[in-house]
Amino acid sequence: METTNGIKKEKQTMNLKTKALDIFSKYSMVIILIGLLIGFQLMTDGIFWRPLNITNIVLQNSHILVLAAGMLLVVLLGHVDLSVGSVMAFVGAISGILMVNWNISPWLAVPICIAIGAIIGAWQGYWVAYFGIPAFIVTLAGLLMFRGLTQVVLGGQSLAPFPEIFQKISTGYLPDLTDGSVHLLTMILGVLIAAALVFGQWRTREKRKNNLFEVESMNAFTLKAVMTAVVMIGVTYIFASYQGYPVILVILGVIVAAYAFLTNKTVAGRQIYATGGNRKAAELSGIKTKKITFWVFVNMGAMAALAGLILAARLNAATPQAGTSMELDAMAAVYFGGASTSGGVGTIVGTIVGGLVMGVLNNGMSILGVGVDWQQAIKGLILLLAVVLDIYNKKKKAA
Length: 399
Hints:
Elements (H helix, E strand, L loop, with lengths): L1 H42 L7 H26 L7 H18 L4 H26 L3 H20 L9 H8 L12 H27 L7 H23 L6 H19 L1 H11 L1 H6 L4 H27 L10 H11 L11 H20 L4 H27 L1
Helix pairs in contact: 1-14, 2-9, 2-12, 2-13, 2-14, 3-4, 3-5, 3-12, 4-5, 4-12, 6-12, 7-8, 9-10, 13-14
């Protein structure tokens, strides 16, 4: 009897360990992000979680998160785009010519600049998709070409200032309904978003249940729903205690929602995952992999253009050095977020979490007075650990 009880206890222990490892592998970056938030709050004597600082983290990293969203689709196909930083600078330079030199309205200049970014993406995607030239080579050429063209367009000088309405993209906030100490409109939006997220989780669970898939217990679902609502409303309160939601945060929210819908709910999204997972099999199943690759690079060009506009609006200037090394930050965010280096694996939520991990690291280390040199070294080490974790998880699943 004692032997039987011992075996049962051992099995229960093994099951708990397995579940714990599965949870960590699935939510590793979320756990790391939470750990960083708590750690920096303690190490900075409460400075880190101040509403102004949290808002600054979003404003300072918004262009990287936009880049990372576009880079996710490129990485899902098993490619990389090294040109996005240079495309950011080039589009920022064009926006300076249009709005500063030619006084063209931002309402017209912004769509023109995004269209230019899409054309650049089409140019690069054409060589990758239809000529089979490795994306690394094509986009490396783009990195050099568009960095040089930026210098040509700007003549080595910065262009400033931009119209005030254009600057609001990166520095503006949602209007408030009252003059109280808490931004009421932001709180209302936060509660509505929390309710929408919980409803989405419930709907997904019911759909899986109706299709006879395994779902979590009601207790586990309730705990997850409560945690989602608490976190969302808590973060919203932090923003509401300062000036409310920044405009750029709303733009990011729309982008995340659009990419989540694309990757999870559309045929095109499933085709992107299939192409990145096994290109030959995707082609044999009738997927037009060349067309998918082409349009993914068009999307990347448009997102790089948007990121360039966001950066130009935040700096209030178009500069030749804009976007330097941003391609590395974007790729790091995607890989931090759990995307596979070989393609076919990754999510938009993971990518945003990965970008926030980088932003929190930069901000926290800056508050603590850590030098830029050490910041780069630490980020490099964490990127390596993220890739090692990805490979470890793959081997474990295959075993």
